[in-house]
């Protein structure tokens, strides 16, 4: 992405809001606005600055964040101590893209923000989507994780990912030669990496006029 995604943190605790804004600013590709602590301030800031994403607490002094969620025409991820099932179901029903329970670490929020960036990237600048494209975007937003952290990768998959060059997309055949595997094997791993948002696919036309997929690492 050429420009950072702008994020507004809404939290009634000023110190927590500043902490979470610091987490956001530490993730490449994201910039946090000064945090706000009330629903009224959140509405004013959203209207004035039009952030890409709001990180919203449930407990605010002048309203419930769950009620504010219905009024915000912007992507929202909940960051809250409200851990009851009703709050989670209500947040999802009213449009929250994710739900993080406090306290959490900077790396945990960073994973969620990177997933959000992949989701945005997969839905950007497209005239139309196939069902596969929609599924890929939603999978990127909520990737399956066997453990708290990045998805474990096999040695071959890690080698395929390491062979990708920023700014110089390669074909599956070129990647296969670099890694020392068959083109079919490279294609299989590239498809999996593209599905979880780790790889970007570009369509390039060769000298024969036939389209060819080329692969590069996803932006952070």
From TrEMBL:
Signal peptide: none annotated. The modification 4-aspartylphosphate is found at residue 57. InterPro entries: 2C-system_Tx_regulators, CheY-like_superfamily, Sig_transdc_resp-reg_cit/mal, Sig_transdc_resp-reg_receiver, Tscrpt_reg_IclR_N, WH-like_DNA-bd_sf, WH_DNA-bd_sf. It is found in: Cytoplasm. Keywords: Activator, Cytoplasm, DNA-binding, Phosphoprotein, Transcription, Transcription regulation, Two-component regulatory system. Residues 6-117 form the Response regulatory domain. This is Transcriptional regulatory protein. It comes from Kocuria oceani.
């Amino acid at each position: 992405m050429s420009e950072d995604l702008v994020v507004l943190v809404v939290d009634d605790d000023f110190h927590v809001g500043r902490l979470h804004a610091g987490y956001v600013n530490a993730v490449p590709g994201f910039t946090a606005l000064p945090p706000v602590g009330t629903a009224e301030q959140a509405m004013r800031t959203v209207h004035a600055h039009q952030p890409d994403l709001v990180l919203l607490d449930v407990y605010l002094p002048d309203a419930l964040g769950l009620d504010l969620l219905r009024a915000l025409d912007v992507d929202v991820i909940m960051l809250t101590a409200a851990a009851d099932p009703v709050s989670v179901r209500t947040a999802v029903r009213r449009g929250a893209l994710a739900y993080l329970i406090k306290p959490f670490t900077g790396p945990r929020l960073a994973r969620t923000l990177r997933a959000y960036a992949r989701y945005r990237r997969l839905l950007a600048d497209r005239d139309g989507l196939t069902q596969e494209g929609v599924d890929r975007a939603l999978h990127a937003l909520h990737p399956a994780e066997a453990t708290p952290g990045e998805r474990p990768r096999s040695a071959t998959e890690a080698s395929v990912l390491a062979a990708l060059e920023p700014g110089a997309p390669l074909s599956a055949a070129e990647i296969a030669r670099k890694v020392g595997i068959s083109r079919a094997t490279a294609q299989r791993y590239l498809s999996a990496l593209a599905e979880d948002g780790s790889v970007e696919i570009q369509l390039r036309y060769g000298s024969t006029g036939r389209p060819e997929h080329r692969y590069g690492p996803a932006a952070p």
